[in-house]
Structures are given as structure tokens and as C-alpha cells.
Design a protein that fits this description.
Blueprint (H helix, E strand, L loop, with lengths): L6 H24 L5 H34 L3 H32 L2 H28 L3 H31 L5 H27 L3 H26 L2 H4 L2 H26 L1 H10 L1 H21 L9 H6 L1
Helix pairs in contact: 2-3, 2-4, 2-10, 2-11, 3-4, 4-10, 4-11, 5-6, 5-9, 6-7, 6-9, 7-9, 10-11
Amino acid sequence: MTIKPGSRDLLWMAVGAILLLAVVLVVLHFQPTQSPSKQLALKIRRSDLAAQMRLNLALASEAEKSAVLAVTDEDSRTFADQARAATAEVERKRQELEGLLAADGTQDEKDLLAQFSKIFAEFQSIDHDLLVLAVKNTNIKAYNLAFGPAMDALNTMNTGLLRLLGKSNGTAVSPKAHTSVYAAINGAWQIQILLPQHIAEESDKKMDEVERHMATLDQSVRQALDNLVEIKILSSDPDLRTAVSKYAEFSGIRGRILALSRENTNVRSLALSLGRKRKVMFLCQDALATLQQAIQAEPSAVVPNPRSLEAR
């Protein structure tokens, strides 16, 4: 005799089947679902990200140094943009790696990335300040003024005074004219010689000393020119007027040179590049190398060889 299950029995069987299915689904949900090949691919991706970050850091550093050493504003800006782009790429990959490690990285790897992130934040801060300085090129502009317009003005002044000296020869005012002309020429060229020293100087205190020396020389030049103006037969001479005008022009250019030199952007950016930036760069590279080694040292699941499976 066949016993047919009643409706109550069927109901309990259905409930049991549903409960069994739910348990299976829960178990499957909490079990690792990644295949060995996928785990290996993620490991390779994490290691590759660390390697790419190291490469982009090197590219950023190289572009930054080129920006510091460039002699034109256009070149400095071009290299600075390249440095910023490479640094931004490091940050993009850092965020991607952070997400991957948060999902299934080891605590050691997360700690190493956090260590790098802290150092990299300092790297970014230094880089920002350094590149802002590098693109201004104030020292280079000061050099260009010193060996361009400033020197041209002094050469014209020098020519005018020497012509004036020739006109005074054989006159009663010749001794006074000679003394004043050479005092003016000598003092002006001593100021010109001090300009490159001021431009290259890093210390504000030493800049102050150079400027005080320049001020003393400037007084002697102006006094010598005033002495020439006081000589009646020379006071209205066009060569003297030219000399006085050109020294005034030189003095104005000198003021611009000193202002640019005080900003000292090339000197300061180079000091940052060779000092703090270089040190932090090495720390970043070391942190990434250690992280990459930790990722590569992870035990990997064995990926079955498809041919060996076919042989079975």
C-alpha cells in the first residue's frame, strides 16, 4: 500500500527545502568566492600599482628639477606642469591601491601604505611650494637685467664721461674733472660687480651687507657727478647730461634687480630641491619598495594547469 503525503506533510517539506536553501546560500555568501587565478591577478595588480607609483614619483622628481633649472618662464611652467601631472598620477594610483588593500590586503600592507601616504603628503606640500618658486625665475631675471640693461647704461655713462674728460684736457679744471670722472666710473662699476654677488646670495643678512656697501658707493658716484656739474664749462655739456641720465637709469634698474634678488626664487627652489625634497623623495621610494615586497611575499593559491586537467 502506498502512503501518500498529506497537505500538511507537503507544507513542512517545502519549508524544510526553503530553510536548507537559505542555509546553503548563507554558507556560500561567507565563503571566499575568488578563484585562485583571480586572487593571483589581484596580487599582480597591487604590486604593479606600487611599481607604477615609484616610476611616477621618479618622473615627478625629474620634471621638478628641470623646472628649477630651466632658464625661461615658459620652460619652467612646462616642466612644472609635467611634475604636477606625475604627482597627481601617483595620488590616483595610491587611492586605487588603498581600495584594493581595504578589500583583501593584509594589515601589514595597510600599515605600510598608510606610512607612505603620510610621507607622500609631505612630498606634495614641498612640491607645491617648490614649483611656485621655480616658475618665477626671479634670480635669472635679475641676472638678465644686470648683464643687459644695467651694463648697457653704465657703458653709455662711461663713454660720455671719458669724452668729457678729453674736452677738459689742457684746461684749468682738468685735475678736478679727472678726479671726479674716475671716481664716478670706479664707483659705478664697483656697484655693478656687487650685483651678481647679491643675486646669488641666499642669506638676507649678507644681502643687507652688500646693499649697504652699494649705498656707500652710490653716494660717492653721485657726489662725483655733482662735482662735474659744478664746473661751469662742463655743466651744460651733452656728454655730462648723458652720463648723469644714464646713471639715474642704472640706479632704477639696480632697484628692480635688488627686488627680484630678494625674492630669491631660483636659489630657494634649488635649496628645497636638493635638501628637503630629495630626502622626502627617498623616504617615499623606500616606503613603496617595502610595500611592494610585502605584496609580492603574499602566499598565492596554486592555479591549476588547464592541460593537466584535460589529461585527467
